[in-house]
Amino acid sequence: MLPNILRVAWRGLWRHRAFTALNVAGLAVGMACALLIGLYVQDELRFDRYHAHADRTYRVVTGTESTAYEGIAKVPAPWGLAVQEALPEVEAMVRLRFFGETLVQRGAARFYEGGAFTADPSVFDVFSFAVQRGDPATALAEPNTLVLTETVARKYFGDEDPLGQTLLFDNAREMTVTGVMADVPPNSHFTFPFLVSRASETDSLQYAWNRTQYYTYLRLAEGASAEGVAAKIPAVLRDHLDEETAATYSPWLQPLPSIHLHSNLFREMAVNGDVAYVYLFTAIAFFILLIACVNFMNLATARASRRAHEVGVRKAAGAGRGALIRQFLGEAWLLSGLALGLALGLVSLALPTFEALTGKELGGLLWGAPWSLPALGVLAVGVGLLAGSYPAFVLSAFRPAEVLKGTVPGLRHGRLRRGLVVFQFAVSAFLIVAAGVVGDQLAFIQQKNLGYDQEHLVVLPIRSDALRQGYQPFKEAVRAVPGVAGVTASANLPGGGDYGIPIVVEGRDPADTPSMRILAVDADFIETLRMDLTAGRAFSADRAADGSGGAFLLNEEAVRQLGWDAGEALGRTLSMPVVGIDPAPVIGVVDDFHFRSMREAIGPLAFFVPPPPWYAIFTVRLRPDGVEATLAALEATWTQFEPDHPFTYSFLDDQIAALHAADERVRVLLRYATGLAVFIACLGLFGLAAFTAEQRTKEIGVRKVLGASLPTLVGLMTREFLVLVLAGVLIAAPVAYLALDRWLDDFAYRTPLEPGTFAVAALLALAVAALTVSYQSVKAALADPVDSLRYE
Predict the structure, then answer these.
(1) Count helices and strands in the chain by DSSP H and E runs
(2) Cα–Cα distance between 215 and 454 in angstroms, integer?
């Protein structure tokens, strides 16, 4: 039975090769697009699920009055140990802390390594990192020991056994390798080149109950309630902190698998994903695949009159409805199978480009996962069933007596066909508008005045304590380099590096003091970044009183939230007792500027000049001309002062752009998805136009004989389709407006939804449709009317 169904189906498809090619091409492109997006979505959903105890591992996070954000991803070091000791539901606990970028050396191999963490020995109890060499229970038990990832171990030791050997850190500190682990899987919310034992830490942060510096994870016992454990943590804190301080924290537990898509706290380990984008691209994949299936159904309805006669003959010859359903579904599944084979080829060709766009390695998901083949089979069967549902279940129900007389029930006016065209172009128009709005918003972000000049700013990390303490001679040497317009030292920079340090305002209740972010800078910072002052003055190197926290600057937002005007703020006294900064006056008010992502409103901010040990970076403003020569001169100057540390640099505008990298990827992917959706819709439109032209051959011939012009005939044939496309655009417009207005609400500063964007989308959809249809219309209109009138 099955071979006969496939043989008959193949003959029918081959007989109508043009329509078969259009169907296969549309289905293949739709399937390929859905597969690629499916790989992206699957990778996003599987983050951190490879850990054996992922379902009962949680990160401790907290809201705090010292930050203006929803919460902070880090907590003080003693919290984890206190919670583990007090609550029997906690089976294991690990604390991680950024180790900082470090110069690592062994022989001639000499590289800066960033992104490492210090970790408790229990890190391998909580996380399922595969230790290949060494004992995971003791590898991080002793000071000055570390566990390397496999890639880093090969980088420094080649094929040698690294265990027991040492690496030199920052030209001063020898660290012993006590373990080698597999590279951290890319589907992890944090990665690292190596882990350093927490016993290697020498500062006091590991004992501070009020300094949020550690990422803390708990593995709970089977059956333990995360909500119940979180509810007990405040009582644990009250055992170690005074009542007032403990009340400023509101801890809770985040499930490990939810962090990547559902967490956007202050001081995240890395930029997380966004579940909204997962929903968005899942919907796009579904609708693109649906458009491809609609093409099939559209062409099926267009050919319904011919297939109806076939149904009538078959039924008159004794074929039952079940046999006809199997026959039509056989055709659809055969088409779907051919399209899937072509789609897999397209995916293989497009995968490297798609991986580059998304920054993900997805090939293993397609070919290596155990569910790949079953999923592909389900896709082919599902698409075939969806695409073939109309001919299988509607055409097979026609009555032989009616269709053999030339009557095709339910298709006299082609309402279904027109409705499907409207649906296709409604989806396409929605995607065109979405692509335009996302592009407009990103252009708005890139062009918006940040409140300072981010162009030509080069960031040089300070690599040694000697340079940190004696930073002034280096500054003067850099200032003397031709091509340098300014230089400043600071502990942090705009772009997410601001600190969260509680500020005390003299004479003001701390509960009534807004949470402020902090930039620790030297006297040349305001001038080098070209910020403007609303009132007062900037820090001055000529005024010794400004140094070491002897003066403050506030931004306009801080002044507003304190209830002052700019002039009134001058002379007010602030302090930061947590870090030993005594009361000092406000000497100036800086115009508001964006110091974090454009998704966030400008918050209150304070500046102060710290002692030299705080400084971590130099920021150098270059003149626009001769940038390469200036960088070379900077490297030579650096080498004079820091011969033991290689010269490295980055541009501040690149760091700012990285804040919106995820949105930029969405823009690019949405643009490609929109192009594919429109292409697939136009394939179906092209087929419908060809079929319509064929059906109206005699009419066109008669009209030409009666004197109809070429534009008249082309307009006659294209008008109906353009009306349908316009209807789709009109349906899509309000839906797009509501959806995109909601997306723009995530940005504190957003572009308006301009009518021009919708008008351009409508014109583009109509133009593409007109070009698609006009080819067939012109071809039919140019045909010889003698041949047309002979046509039957």
Answers:
(1) 28, 23
(2) 31
H or E element in which residue 367 lies: helix 363-367
Strand partners, 64: 249
**Backbone angles phi and psi of 621, in degrees to 5:** -90, 125
Asked whether the beta carbons of 287 and 26 are under 8 A apart, the reply is no
Model pLDDT for residues 259-314, shown as the tens digit of each residue: 999 998 888 898 888 888 888 888 888 888 888 888 777 766 655 555 555 655 55
- Paired tokens of 374: 């079953």
- 682: its two tokens: 């136009």
- For residues 259 and 65, the answer to whether their CB atoms sit within 8 Å is no
From the list 484, 467, 312, the residue with the least C-alpha distance to 395 is 312
- For residue 76, which amino acid is it? P
- 10 Å CB burial of residue 399 (0-12, 13-18, 19+) is middle
Report which DSSP code applies to 256: G
Gap between the Cα atoms of 591 and 529, Å rounded: 12
d(CA 140, CA 148): 11
Place of tokens 């590898």: 139
Instruction: Please give the backbone phi and psi of residue 70, each rounded to the nearest 5 degrees, phi first.
Output: -55, -35
pLDDT digits (tens, 9 = 90+) for 604-643: 999 999 999 999 999 999 999 999 999 999 999 999 999 9
- DSSP label at residue 695: H
| Pairing of the two strands 605-608 and 517-520 | parallel
CB neighbour burial string for 13-37, b if at least 16 within 10 angstroms, e if fewer: beeeeebbebbbbbbbbbbbbbbbb
Phi, psi of 750 (to 5 degrees): -135, 155
Q: Report the Cα–Cα distance between both ends of the chain, in Å, rounded.
A: 35
